[in-house]
Design goal:
Blueprint lengths: L31 H4 L20 H10 L4 H8 L3 H33 L3 H11 L10 H5 L11
Helix pairs in contact: 2-4, 3-4, 4-5
């Protein structure tokens, strides 16, 4: 066998890893929104918007409609019970009446639409003056009653 000569490969210079320059961190970017000035929006006309502020009268009416006591309403408003009685008694009574209407409506709805027997009995006793034990008139008890025990032929 003949010896083979090794071929010399052409020397290819190896590439050196190039050193990249180290970048300095960029300064923080400014927020573009900071430079924008708020726009002046022109009014569209019409009545200006009104802030919703509950008046003391409406608050008294609302809380009394929820069956809150005078002490609870006065504590909520940071006033005395006497002040509540002097200044807001009318609104307190209106709220109570509206609360009764709401309660009556809820009971009627429960009784009639949902067929709740207990609510029907309650309404019959209160609204129709029905009772399970009817009152007996005292005059009927005193009347002379003749009982027939035998039949005459």
């Amino acid at each position: 066998m003949a010896k083979r000569k090794k071929k010399k490969s052409a020397s290819v210079p190896k590439k050196r890893a190039s050193k990249k320059p180290v970048k300095k961190p960029a300064p923080p970017k400014e927020d573009p929104l900071e430079k924008i000035e708020p726009l002046q929006i022109k009014s569209k006309g019409g009545r200006p918007e009104k802030e919703i502020i509950l008046s003391v009268e409406k608050t008294v009416e609302f809380l009394s409609g929820l069956k809150a006591t005078k002490e609870e309403v006065a504590a909520f408003l940071c006033i005395s019970v006497d002040t509540l009685d002097r200044r807001y008694a009318e609104f307190f009574s209106i709220g109570r009446l509206r609360g009764k209407v709401k309660l009556r409506r809820a009971i009627n709805d429960e009784a009639i639409n949902k067929r709740n027997g207990r609510c029907l009995v309650f309404l019959a006793k209160n609204d129709l003056d029905m009772s399970e034990n009817p009152d007996v008139d005292p005059e009927v008890e005193k009347a002379d009653v003749t009982y027939v025990t035998e039949w005459d032929d």
